[in-house]
Amino acid sequence: ARQRVNKIRAAQVIQAWFRGHRARKEYASVVKAVRVIQSYFKTKQQRTWFLKMKFCALTIQRRWRATLTARRIRHQFLETKKAAVKIQLAYIQAFLLEF
């Protein structure tokens, strides 16, 4: 009877060790899966942030270029207007000198 009890206890110890080993292995597998999922999530989050920053940078660049173009066009317009006024003034002065 004592030998049977010892065998049962030995079997329980082995089973407990095996169950613990299996639980640790399963836990490690779950931790690995969680890390993979977190990695994918973080990657997606960072990509979304990067694309947003890229869009913002492109918007700023586009608007700045538009501002520079508008300034250049305005400057050209003012130079053309100034030249036209000079021509008109010269024409009027020449016309008035004839009379």
Automatic annotation (TrEMBL):
It is found in: Cytoplasm. GO terms for biological process: establishment of meiotic spindle localization; mitotic cell cycle; spindle organization. InterPro entries: ASPM, IQ_motif_EF-hand-BS, P-loop_NTPase. Its main location: cytoplasm. SUPFAM superfamilies: P-loop containing nucleoside triphosphate hydrolases (SSF52540). Keywords: Calmodulin-binding, Cytoplasm, Repeat. GO terms for molecular function: calmodulin binding. The keyword Repeat applies. Pfam families: IQ (PF00612). It comes from the Eukaryota. The keyword Repeat applies. GO terms for cellular component: cytoplasm; spindle pole. This is Calmodulin binding transcription activator 2.
